[in-house]
Amino acid sequence: MSDAFRGVFHAAAACGHVQLLEWIHMKYPHADWAGVIDSAVKNRQFDAAVWIRAYHPESATHDTIAAAASSGVVALLKWLSEQYPSRAFCTSSRKAMKRGAASGSLEVVEFLVERTMETASVKWAPPKALVNAAKNGHLDVLQYLARRLPKKYLRGAVDAAVEHCQLAVLEWLDKRNRVRVSPSTLSRVAQNGHKEILKWLYERSPRYYKNCFGFGNLNLLRDATAHGRGELVQWMLDVGKDIKVCIEPAIDGTLIPVQSAVGDKVLLPEYGGSLIKLGSDEFHLFRDEDILGKLQ
To answer: Using CA atoms in the order 154, 159, 165, 166, what is the torsion angle rounded to 10 degrees?
Structure first.
């Protein structure tokens, strides 16, 4: 069977076209139906899934339960677990939990927890499940899983909430255990222009995020500038205007900002301007042209 023809099977199942599935069944009795039911269940096509189960039970794979979990429809998941009891929660429970958490359906997650806890033969909730809930803003799912898991499982959830701008999730995580965000995650936040997240982190702990690796680190300004985040660049410049720096001439005559606190040397050619001394230990970035206007 060609890939194009197989794609017709999956497209028909994904769209719930039962009549087309019946025609294919009659026209090509020896066709390979493996995995077709997965396309139906993950797209919430209950009628198509019922028909495929009746005429091609061999269509189910080890990913079928996980596909149903990703749909967020608990009735569909329960039905499949009854239809395929031998494979339902043995080989795919961890993948199903990850996808169920990503779907945001608390009913699906609760059902998976109940069933997988019965087997007691697998680690039922991988850290990725909490990460998926956090990055998609599914706070109720995250809270439910967090009550049943060690705190260490929440480490990845913090970075996921920050990177995907889920402020409500981040606030809840911070109440449980004071949040610290990695430099690499902050860099991605700057690239994505999530000003509200950086502002919240700064207001919550200005000394830590300015002096440790946050707004005192000119690499964040470079990340934001390179990705056209003009509003964020302006805000970071305003916040960091009292950062102590000194300047040194480079070989090519440009100025290199040097952070006196950590000694990092960072070239800023994209700013098109110069750092000018305003006081004994204060400098300001004066641009030759309005680069912020270009960014916005």
So the answer is: 0
Largest CA distance in the chain: 86
Contact yes or no for 9/33 (Cβ under 8 A): yes
pLDDT above 50 (res 251): no
Closest to 176 measured CA to CA, from 156, 203, 201, 151: 151
What b/e string do you get for 114-149 counting C-beta neighbours within 10 Å, with b at 16 or more?
ebbeeeeebebbbbbbbbbbbbbbbbebbebbbeeb
- At residue 72, φ and ψ (nearest 5 deg) are 80, 10
Cβ proximity of 141 and 104 under 8 Å = yes
pLDDT digits (tens, 9 = 90+) for 176-186: 887 778 778 88
DSSP 8-state assignment for residue 265: B
Q: What is the pTM of this model?
A: 0.73
Nearest of 213, 204, 166 to residue 186 by alpha carbon: 213
Domains of the chain: 243-295 (2.30.33.40)
